[in-house]
C-alpha cells in the first residue's frame, strides 16, 4: 500500500496554522511573521511535503491575484456579493482585481483577457449574457480555476462550475403568498426575455398562473428602477385590472413603488408588490418591501472559500450548486 502524499492541509494541521498561511509561506509572502514561517517550514520538512507544481501554476506562479468579474456593480445585490467575496479572499492572503462589465459582453471579454494576461490565479465571474464562448475558450486555455456565479452562460460545467441561488423556489414562495391572500390579477415585472435567470425567477409565476387558469401579464426589460417606474405608470394608465406584481428584483420593485406613490396609488393597500434579493434598502423604505431573501453575504464567502479550496488543493467542486432562499413578508404585499 502506497502512503498518502502529504497535502497543504496536512502541513497546516502539523504547524497549527491555516492553509492560507502555508500557501503564503510557499509564495514567500512578506505578510507572514518570521516565527510562523519557521514553524511552517519545519512542518514541511518533517512531513516531507512536496509542493504540487501544477497547483502552483494554477495559482499564477505565486502572484496571489484573483479576478472578480461582475455584470452590474450598480446593483446593490451584486455589490454586496463582490464585497463579501473580496473580503473573504483578502482574509486568505489574496489580492482581488474587480471589474464591472455593465452587462456588456465585449467589455467582459476585454477585462477577462486583460486579467489573464496579468496572470490571475483564478476567476470568479458573475457573467453578462451574449457572445461569451470566445471568452470562456480563452479561460480554458489559461487553465485556471474559474467559477460561474449567480448566472450561467457556459455549459461546460465540468470546467466552469456554476453556483447560484434557488431562484425557482423563491418565485414559487412569492406566488403562493400573493395567491393565498386572494390576489389573482398579478403581473410579472422585469428581467431580460429568454435568458436563464429570468426563466428561473419567473418559473413560479408562470406555473401558478397556469395552474389557476389565470392570464399572465409580463413586462420584460433590463431590471432597473427606471424600468420599474415605467411598468408602474403603464399599469396605472393601461392595466387598472392588475392588483399585484412579482418583480425580477428589488430595484424594479422599488421603482414601481416610487412611481405608484407619485400616481397616488398606495402600495400595500391599492396595489401589492413582492421583490427579489432582499437588498438592504428593502427593509428601510416605506412601505417596507416584501422580497425573496438571498443571503448574498454568506454566498460570497462560501463561493470564495470553494474557489480557494480548488486553487490550493487542486480539487474542483461539484458542477452545480444552489443555495437556499426564503420569503420575507413586509408591508408592500401584506393585506391587513
What does this 3D model show about the protein?
The protein is of the alpha/beta class and 336 residues long. The protein folds into 3 domains: 8-51, lambda repressor-like DNA-binding domains (434 Repressor (Amino-terminal Domain)), CATH 1.10.260; 58-164 and 296-322, Rossmann fold; 167-294 and 327-333, Rossmann fold (3-Layer(aba) Sandwich). 45% of the residues lie in helices and 16% in strands. It contains 12 helices and 12 strands. The strands form 2 sheets. The chain has a 6-stranded parallel sheet, sandwiched between helices. A 6-stranded mixed sheet has the order 7-6-8-9-10-12, with helices on both faces. Helix 1 packs across helix 3 (34-47). The longest helix is centred in the last third of the chain and has 18 residues, at 296-313. The radius of gyration is 23 Å and the shape is elongated.
Short description:
This protein has helices at 8-15, 19-26, 34-47, 53-58, 76-91, 105-117, 133-142, 167-180, 196-211, 225-238, 250-262, 296-313; strands at residues 65-70, 95-100, 122-126, 146-149, 162-165, 186-189, 217-219, 244-247, 272-277, 290-293, 320-323, 326-328. By secondary structure, it is of the alpha/beta class. It has three domains: 8-51, Orthogonal Bundle (434 Repressor (Amino-terminal Domain)), CATH 1.10.260.40; 58-164 and 296-322, Rossmann fold (3-Layer(aba) Sandwich), CATH 3.40.50.2300; 167-294 and 327-333, Response regulator (Rossmann fold, 3-Layer(aba) Sandwich), CATH 3.40.50.2300.
Amino acid at each position: 500500500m502506497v502512503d498518502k502524499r502529504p497535502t497543504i492541509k496536512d502541513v497546516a494541521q502539523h504547524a497549527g496554522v491555516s492553509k492560507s498561511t502555508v500557501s503564503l509561506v510557499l509564495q514567500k509572502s512578506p505578510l507572514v511573521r518570521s516565527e510562523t514561517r519557521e514553524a511552517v517550514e519545519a512542518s514541511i520538512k518533517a512531513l516531507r511535503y512536496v509542493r504540487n507544481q501544477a497547483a502552483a501554476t494554477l495559482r499564477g506562479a505565486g502572484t496571489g491575484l484573483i479576478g472578480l468579474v461582475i455584470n452590474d456593480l450598480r446593483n446593490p445585490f451584486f455589490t454586496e456579493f463582490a464585497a463579501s467575496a473580496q473580503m473573504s479572499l483578502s482574509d486568505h492572503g489574496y489580492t482581488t482585481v474587480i471589474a464591472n462589465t455593465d452587462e456588456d459582453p465585449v467589455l467582459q471579454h476585454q477585462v477577462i483577457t486583460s486579467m489573464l494576461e496579468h496572470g490571475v490565479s483564478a476567476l470568479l465571474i458573475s457573467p453578462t449574457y451574449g457572445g461569451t464562448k470566445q471568452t470562456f475558450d480563452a479561460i480554458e486555455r489559461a487553465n485556471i480555476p474559474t467559477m460561474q456565479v449567480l448566472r450561467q452562460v457556459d455549459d461546460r460545467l465540468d470546467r466552469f462550475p456554476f453556483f447560484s441561488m434557488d431562484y425557482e423556489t423563491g418565485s414559487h414562495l412569492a406566488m403562493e403568498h400573493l395567491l393565498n391572500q386572494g390576489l389573482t390579477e398579478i403581473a410579472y415585472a422585469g428581467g431580460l426575455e429568454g435568458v436563464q435567470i429570468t426563466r428561473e425567477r419567473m418559473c413560479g409565476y408562470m406555473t401558478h398562473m397556469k395552474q389557476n387558469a389565470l392570464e399572465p401579464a409580463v413586462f420584460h426589460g433590463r431590471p432597473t428602477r427606471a424600468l420599474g417606474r415605467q411598468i408602474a405608470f403603464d399599469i396605472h394608465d393601461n392595466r387598472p385590472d392588475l392588483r399585484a406584481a412579482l418583480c425580477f428584483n428589488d430595484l424594479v420593485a422599488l421603482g414601481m413603488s416610487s412611481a405608484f406613490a407619485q400616481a397616488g396609488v398606495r402600495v400595500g393597500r391599492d396595489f401589492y408588490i413582492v421583490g427579489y434579493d432582499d437588498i438592504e434598502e428593502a427593509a428601510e423604505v416605506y412601505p417596507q418591501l416584501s422580497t425573496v431573501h438571498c443571503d448574498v453575504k454568506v454566498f460570497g464567502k462560501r463561493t470564495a472559500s470553494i474557489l480557494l479550496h480548488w486553487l490550493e488543493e487542486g480539487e474542483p467542486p461539484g458542477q452545480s450548486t444552489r443555495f437556499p432562499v426564503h420569503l420575507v413578508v413586509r408591508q408592500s404585499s401584506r393585506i391587513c
